[in-house]
Amino acid sequence: xxxxxxCDHGGFPLKAxxxxxxxxxxHEVLDFGTNSPDSVDFPDFAQKVxxxxxxxxxxxxxxxCGSGVGMSMAANKMKGIYASVCHDTYSAHQGVEHDGMNVxxxxxxxxxxxxxxxxxxxxLNAEPGGSERHARRREKVKALESACQ
Length: 149
What we know:
By secondary structure, this protein is an alpha/beta fold.
């Protein structure tokens, strides 16, 4: 898979670890920055990652800011982007399997590097699926998205 990655200054401390975890898992990285701990605006990076997914350049995305919340909020404003903050492995894989999550958001001020590696692995190893009820629920989310545009 191709994984688009973006972060602001708050997520920057996790970035190198996340890039390495993606590559070690055998996936390609599309790095959209930021490339320093200097203050930047998180929506700019959420947009870059979201557009890469929308345009078919990336299969999934990973976004990091201080808490993960801002990135999740910004990314979820984009059509076809289903982002969530996950600071545990269960949410990271279940979000993909049951809910169709395609963007993982994490907080660089919330979790450490070892936990981040495990969360990234859970997210990357998960495949959308689940039961008929999960598919029905994913379709209802897509219908909400279309109705609210």
